[in-house]
Amino acid sequence: MKDKKPGRLFIISAPSGTGKSTVIQKLMETRPNLYFSVSATTRPPRPGEKDGLSYRFINHEQFEELIRSDELLEHAEYVGNYYGTPKAPVLEHIGSGNDIILDIDVQGCKQVKKAMPEAVTIFIVPPSLEELERRLRSRGTDSEEKMQKRLERAITELGEKDTYDYVVVNDSVEKAAQEILEIMARQD
Ligand code: ADP
Ligand code: 5GP
After folding, report:
1. Residue 24 near residue 37 (C-beta atoms within 8 A)
2. What angle separates helix 173-186 from helix 20-30, to the nearest 10 degrees?
3. By CB count within 10 A, which of 51, 57, 68, 134 is most buried?
4. What is the pLDDT of residue 141?
5. pTM of the entire predicted model
6. Contact assessment for residue 123 and residue 164, using Cβ atoms and an 8 Å cutoff
7. Is the CB of 108 within 6 Å of ligand 2?
8. Cα(159) to centroid of ligand 2, in Å?
9. Which domains, ranges and CATH numbers included, belong to the chain?
């Protein structure tokens, strides 16, 4: 019997507030056989975020235990909280031939790309920094201090966009999602 083709790993990064979660949601609606890697985080849930769907919301002690027991593919600190990718589901999906998306930051992307160089990396950018600030404010989930930190971080991250395989502008959610679907189709 022929060996099953492994699934592909897509890493999507973007400065917080760009609209990455919104675009990924659109991708998942369009391609139901695409899997989303649910990260673990110590950040508190935002309104509407469901434990086990958006993130696994855990405390610092639990996060440190995941690191100690080597259960994370990568992890990073982002504006005062830990975020990490559970290793087992990623390896299982790839092994079963399913494509999987990782929504992780620039530091996490570097770690995964080192371990899995075949990963396809996509960086989503906002149309402008002014629009990014407007989106962060419209989401209304961060304190002024956290929002300023996220904006500062955004400027550093935008400087890394050329280290990614593809850069997509999120002007319209539909257009950005369509562009990413085309990138995915190109890997077939
Ligand atoms: P991220 O996951 O990158 O932090 P979100 O998906 O939470 O960002 O989006 C941040 C805010 O911007 C949300 O209020 C969302 O509705 C809005 N948004 C996302 N994409 C667009 C877009 N193309 N045009 C206008 N607003 C957008
Ligand atoms: P947010 O708090 O806005 O949901 O996420 C903040 C940042 O953390 C975003 O850039 C997001 O992509 C990133 N992030 C989410 N999950 C992970 C993860 O598992 N690992 C890493 N390295 N970054 C993550």
Report:
1. no
2. 60
3. 57
4. 81
5. 0.95
6. yes
7. yes
8. 17
9. 9-186 (3.40.50.300)
